[in-house]
Amino acid sequence: MDRLALRWLRQLGGGYSVRASDAAALRLLGLACLACLICLPALSALVLSPALALPVGASLMLATFLSLSAAAIALSRGTVAEQVPEDNVDHAFDVCPGVVFHCDVQGAILKCGGRDRALLPAMRFDRPGLSLAELVHVSDRIAVAQALDALRQGATYALVDVRIERGMDAEGDRQFLTVRLDLSPVTAEDGDLRQIFVQLRDVTEEVGLREEIQLRTADAQSANDAKSRFLAAVSHELRTPLNAILGFSDVLAGEYFGALANDRQREYVSLIRQSGGHLLSVVNTMLDMSRIESGRYELLTEHFRIAEAVETCRAMLDLQARNKGVTLTARVSRSLGEVVADRRAVQQILINLAGNAIKFTQSGGVVSIDASQQGTDLKLTVSDTGIGIAAEKMALIGQPFMQVQDDYARAYEGTGLGLSLVKGLVALHGGNFTIESRLGEGTVVTILIPVEGPGERASVHDAGDAIEFPPRLRTVSDACVASGQGLAHDRAKAKRA
After folding, report:
1. Assuming Cys at both sites, which of 104, 458, 468, 481 could form a disulfide with 375, CB separation 3.0 to 4.6 Å?
2. pLDDT > 70? residue 456
């Protein structure tokens, strides 16, 4: 019966929620009316004829039942409507996180509550006529006044970080707490500002973390600057004696002041010259890296034919490739003419990439240097059929002093600065650096730099033709390299002087 009564009340409720007490009240009224169904016809028979007494009594009973039901339900809902919202508002005001205030439009505190009311001593906000600005530090009162003024001018909210006094500590010094005031307007139906709702939250920990982050960032930046200055100083100090070593070893190798006694002496002089040259190249690379990181690397852009730069690099590395049994080939698109870039930097990029490719390619492998135009970008690609790079190492490629074989038993020499320098030079030109590799099959490195110089990057790139992977020797064609598989993209970032 209760379920039927609740269903009937929901259909007649008109959007009001139906409670179990409504069904209980309806059940009691029904029992009372059932008793009246017997009593009313009997009483009516004393006044009316028996033929009229039964219908009249039943009608009176039904009308009384409906009237009492409607009156009881309406009365209970009216009581709830009058009492529950006020109780809910007070309860929500007391359990609201932080400390909350109701203020007038001038900022005077009318009411105080909140879950964290203990943050403030009672003497700080229970004084009659206390204003919100009086709670905060003197130097923060202007910010509070500006927030109140913003709400009076129609702002939907205002946030301000201030300091409030918490009393005295054990040593008699004033204690201040960093808090955030969240001010929201309470408006009337016509939109006029009536009151201001303020929520105060403790943000001392957040401010402390922010200050710690700023301190750590400053320390890291200082350490990085010190490292760059150290590299620059050491590089400059090493170049002077290295130039002397190389010069005197050339004099000895040329036997300008007398012939060497035997072939072993000639071999030793040659080793001194090679080692000195290798060390000088490392020093120059470190110096370039420190200049790039400190923003003091200056690009000297000029017009030049990229085919000449590619051929120069191929000729410089051809002997190294032939000594290792690697085929080195260069392919330049016929339609590619002059570009605007730093010629020395572009040649350094190609030498580093091709030198790495030769170093990590076994005898019988192929290394290709390709140049083509993609939209308004110059596209340089160096591909090889070498050892490749493992997937877990791809994210580390290009970091300073990082190598594919970064352990004590590595089989390949090098400092790990080559790709890092390439990324820096590419970034100075406003270009992109992409590397793709398969372990045991080879690697493809793609460079995109604007043809018209730094800052002239194209907005749309052509799709390009796919390169065969691993690459194979073929005749020169207009369509050169594009992307392969196992993509690991890392956009280079650097400062430009």
Report:
1. 458
2. no
